[in-house]
Model the fold of this input.
Amino acid sequence: MSQRDDSDKGNSLLNPTRRQALAMAIIGAAGTLLPLGRASQSFAAMAAPPSGQVIIGLSQEPTVFNPHMPHIEVDDGIHWNVFDPLFGISPSGEFVPALATEVPTVANGGISADGLQWKVKLRSDAKWHDGRPFTAEDVKYTLELIVSPNFRSGRRAGHDLLRDITVVSPTEIHWRMEKSYAPYASILSSTFMVPKHILSVAADVNTAPFNNAPIGTGPFKWGTRVAGDHIQLKANPHYHGTQPQIDSVIFKYIPDLTVLYTQFKTGDIDVTAMQGITPDHYEEAKDLAGRTVVILPVATIESVTLNMERPQFKDPVVRQALYMAIDKKTIIDELYFGLVLPTETYMPQQSAYYNPNLPKQSFNIEAASKLLDDAGWKPGAGGIREKGGVRLSFTNSTTAGNQIREQAQQFIQQTWLAIGVEMKISNLPPAVMWGEYWVQSKFDSVIVGNNFLTGADPDTRDYFGSQSTNAKGGAGQNNSQYVNAKVDELLAQGAAIQDVAQRKAVYVQVQDLIRQDLPILPLFQYTYVRGYKSGLKGFTGNINLRIEPWNVNTWSWT
Amino acid sequence: MTTATHYLPASRRWAWLANPTLRRFMRHKLAVLGVVMITVLILACVFGPYLLHYNDLSIDIRNRFAPPFTGNHYLGTDALGRDTAARLLNAGRISLMVGFCAMLISIVIGTLIGVIAGYYRGWVGAGLMRFVDAFLSFPSVFLVLVLAAFTKPSPMMITLIIAVTSWMEISRIVEAEIRSLRERDFTLAARMIGASNRWIMFRELMPNAIGPIIVAATLTIANAILLEAYISFLGYGIQPPLPSWGNMLNAAQQYLGKAPWLAIIPGLAITLAVTSFNFIGDGLRDALDGRSDLK
Amino acid sequence: MPNYILNRLGQSAVVLVLVSLIGFMVLNLAPGGPMSQFALNPGMSQAELDRIAEQLGLKRPLLVQYIDWFSHLFVGDWGHSFRDGRPVLSVIAGHLPATLLLMGTSTLLSIVIGTWVGVLGAVRRYSVFDTLATVGAMVALSIPTFWFGLVAIFFFSLHLGWLPAGNMYTIGDQSLGDYAIHLVLPVLVLALVNVAIWSRYMRSATLDVIDQDFVRTARAKGVPYRRVLTHHVIRNALLPMITLAGLQIPTILGGALVTETVFTWPGMGRLFLDSLGYSDYPVIMGILMFSAVLVLLGNLLADLLIGVADPRVRLA
Done:
């Protein structure tokens, strides 16, 4: 099912003229007699006003309500309900129109053949929550705000390539891209439109009251917030897309995962979202009466990320041996109770660009030791291998607090010791870990979960491009300081092509190279264990987004 | 005469047994119990690990969450299959060590500041005490957490942080004691024979204030152990795989329903250690306070 | 009396300035200092970071920065949270009621129970009750609060299912009964340590008073023991308790932090921990300063109150 069902009529049906009312009555009566498929369903759905409440439990608190300021995943949950992008993305990876009437593509002329000229047509019936109409002016304002130097923008990538944004009419907007950038469609699919008439008159957008009481065009309006406890959203009766059937949505913040699970068990919350049910509770959870527990694949990959500038990691044999000495199977089966997916790459398996033919890792201590022996790494003091004055001893860090990850870390430490590698654990509080230590590549190795993609787009220049290393003067997330000229070339190629089949060929090669070079040792692909009360319909995961409550307007209680 | 005369032993070697302070201490049953408990605990932590079958670091994933008395795991195993008993005793080494060192450091700092503040009246004394008051205004837990969140965690760092937030009480006690002592005759006498300020402070006054300092010391260790447990419980203190009673509780929190012994046992150990020090401190306070003989 | 008040006010003012100095030092100790929120954003070049530092006035001499910061504190501008941009004071104010509820209820409970236990123990010195109470108090002081909370949750919530496992209320049902049942466990856990402290102090304070001549006189005059206790002994014994109450505020705040962690109580302690995790320095500093000011005010109030109540103090 697509994200928003825009085949329905807009809000004129709720305030009909007498003629319309009569027409509705006749059609409605007919509708009960003749099954009209989806249309009749939506009629029935729209006839009843939204009612009831759903409580979604989160283990992190949403605090950033302006979707363009730096924020974390859990804030997306609020954004998807209060705002709309021009077009969204379905679980199967297709774009679905939201505020735009159709998704701009080369085929329908929305994007020029060279990828540089964009023409987007917008809906005429979308309204802001305060009643004012949504127009192309708002789109222009939003796109310009994101790149404005005075605005604390979360992400400028892609938007900084826009030039000559022109409002042709209230329902049409054109712009030109500085260069063809295929990932831009994906970026746009999670770019929410914010109101010009409110933000442009604010003294300072960074501290405007809007940021604490946002107004969007989405299916839910901002209700109330009790800081540190919960946020309530109310259904928007004038929504242009699929009408929400539930009237009140509560995002409840419960910082402790055990308490979150207990409250799910006792029914105090209806849905567990971020970070869900811990793997060790899964066995019990799936048998709970009146509860449905699902396992949703996510695009986040857990890996041991190495700092390629460290002398210990310069030798590819060392990296291969290290990878071979990780008992992935036990980690997945025992520590994670078999709930995560083994993987050999940074690309999620559900992606259209996934390369299934990568060499499979197998856990083999003897082979790994032999590899190191043959390459000249001989055991030295304390049984730790060394060669040419370099000892295979280094630190590994992660943020304290994720129990199972810490367990995996200690387990890897033990198996690496068996091949003569000394890994010292040095976990840090988040404030220290994600600061300079990470961003300026001051670490030796870390265990981290990353989503390397941008939405559904496979472009990973931010992570693997040589110009994306901050420590070397670049800008990006290539904190492992990985450099491979061939990969740079392929990534640049891939970003410029629009055709999916052609792009796949390129990205398959990139995955081969990354698997060979091993700047990251892929451990597994994450899954989220989520639970909801069995009476709730409509709950679906979306691997292309980071959160579950992305389609709350399609949820209903039976 | 004091009661000591009744017990005057024949030889000089055992004369110290007759010390009135010691006698008073021994009469305090709880204090003696405390000494016994802590001695047993220390011996267990120092020598125990050598007597167990498993060490505290070996991971055995097949045997996770074994309840107590499974095979040779007297206290069961934890989430990674490591022997709980081994981890408990090794954790004891670290937690007790951190507590002890933190106490030493804070005693040194606290006594220094307390003696100087108590001796020099006027601006120096008042100023220093206001400084101490300012520090005391921050709940120590908040201060400790802020410092721990900004620094790279290690046993040394934790010890320093705890020490830095524990010296204030001691300096208060010392300052009050010194202030009363400085009016006594022996101080006057020392000044008359021309002793320097430094001599008076550290050779005359401070030794006489040892009583309250020792009592404060035992209470400081108790508090330091609790603080370390708390920061490690929150994840900011001793990092795994090094065990500490606090971080064992952190790891056990998630498995409260499945393996409650993992949470109950370290907590009992902490309570035992801290109770012993509290008992001892209480006994010392009564023993060093000469008035308790008169009833 | 006026002398006494002036004296205390003066001392408090000095301490306040010192507190702000310590706070300022801690603020600049943080990795990255006030610039940290930008350092976490990759893609910022060094030139841009310098420009922002200049804009925020971080290139000025430390003394100037300190005076600026302190004067801002005075007028109520405590900065804005890095996370949601709201003024720090309103963020703290939003979380304060929950903490006050917890602290207030448990302090009340511990004073009542602690006084009763302490006085009774003093009156029946060395009886079974007294010995049990003393030993019990010392053990209670030694139990780590957070561990006790965990065990209590395990027992009363997971095992027996009598009480909720955390939070302040259930959404949808915010009746008085709902709040009450959520309060039970956290208040009990927090009160444990406080009852121990109060009862021990009350015991020794009562002992001090009971041995005094005026009590003996009252009894000799034939006043019933009960009345001697309530009218003479307890009233006088409660006097040092006022000072103690003031001195206890930092401990209670710290205990509230611990309890809020274990019971996911949406108070200031919870806010503090979350802000630590997100490196929200303005809020962290705000809470530090706020609690210090609270403590100072509490002590000042206690000293003034005792000056009113106890003539010995103000004439000394």
Q: What stands out?
A: The interface with chain C takes residues 30, 130-131, 133-143, 145-147, 149-150, 222, 226, 229-230, 233-234, 249, 253, 256-257, 260, 263-264, 266-267, 270-271, 274-275, 277-279, 282 of chain B (CB under 8 Å). The CA atoms of residues 231 and 237 of chain B lie 5 Å apart. The two ends of chain B are 15 Å apart (CA to CA). The mean pLDDT of chain B is 84.
